[in-house]
Amino acid sequence: MTQPDDQRWMALALSLGRRGLGQTWPNPAVGCVIVKDGRVLSRGWTQAGGRPHAEQVALSQLAPNAANGATAYVTLEPCAHTGQTPPCASALIEAGLARVVVATGDPDARVSGRGLAMLREAGLEVTTGVLEDEARRDQQGFLLRVTEGRPLVTLKLASSFDGRIATAAGESQWITGPQSRLQVQALRANHDAVMVGGRTAREDLPSLTLRGMGARRQPVRIVISAGLNLPTLGPLAEDTSGAPVWLIHGANAPQKARDFWADRGATLIEVAQDPSGLDMTAALRALGQAGLTRVLCEGGGSLAASLLKAQLVDQIVGFTAGVILGSDGLPSLGPLDAPKLSDAPRFALTETRRVGADVMHVWHRADK
């Protein structure tokens, strides 16, 4: 049974869990708050690399017996299996808690329902579903990896008012302003990986690293290039930041190119290919199998279009500048092959706000 302050404390736990987004893969980013007599005793969130878990962090801050009779607010069902650490459900029981409030369940077969059952069997009161919609939104990447075998995909589009990303001559820096570019860094910070297509890698020579966000785990840098036709000079080949490079390619990628990138420490992932390009569903599943839960796609237009056509884009974050480039400018998306309006991908607006001189708007798949 819910209590008057349950939503208040769960909202705090959710805000803590979000601190781990982009840092905890392959584990979920969870928040935990322990409360007694209307006062917060401790709080925690899943640490970088996925351990220790949020519950363990919060419990470690307490003196012996301090949690007796307290309530723990946890954003995801506590784990019930022994991995590199003991089950969090057991730790909550041993701490003497009287009640555990959980936002949403964990579909992982090792956990699903078992964590809640362990708590109830030990005599703890268990309440579920508090702020569940918010929790499932935060956990969407982890939930997708467990249920569909792939990570969440966020498509970032920064364009002119008329949807162009470069002039007819190819000039693109900078359409949006510095505040929008800083916001893109924040997006990178809460995703596990940043992904671009081969053309973007060749033309822009991007570093794809996280900058200006303090000491955080660098996102994996992913490039989609069927033939590994990528520059052998520049940030991807020469960067020493320690950010991993993963290259997704087809079966016909030359051995010389494979050897070059392997020698530089890149991870090579081969996926199926047909005349239209690489199988993006297979590519995303390979990334999910490797543990990724959240991927930020930053272009280019052909890659974005292929993801949209395959219905693999879960949310779009757009940055629109007040500049007009005209129909001869480079469009932000390649062809979608949608002859009818009813065939076009459709998204629902969930947020809009001003960022410097630009407008940021966030959209989620209308069918999710």
Automatic annotation (TrEMBL):
Pathway: Cofactor biosynthesis; riboflavin biosynthesis; 5-amino-6-(D-ribitylamino)uracil from GTP: step 3/4; Cofactor biosynthesis; riboflavin biosynthesis; 5-amino-6-(D-ribitylamino)uracil from GTP: step 2/4. One of its GO terms (molecular function) is 5-amino-6-(5-phosphoribosylamino)uracil reductase activity. This is Riboflavin biosynthesis protein RibD. Signal peptide: none annotated. CDD domains: Riboflavin_deaminase-reductase. It comes from Litoreibacter arenae DSM 19593. It catalyses: 5-amino-6-(5-phospho-D-ribitylamino)uracil + NADP(+) = 5-amino-6-(5-phospho-D-ribosylamino)uracil + NADPH + H(+); 2,5-diamino-6-hydroxy-4-(5-phosphoribosylamino)-pyrimidine + H2O + H(+) = 5-amino-6-(5-phospho-D-ribosylamino)uracil + NH4(+). It comes from the Bacteria.
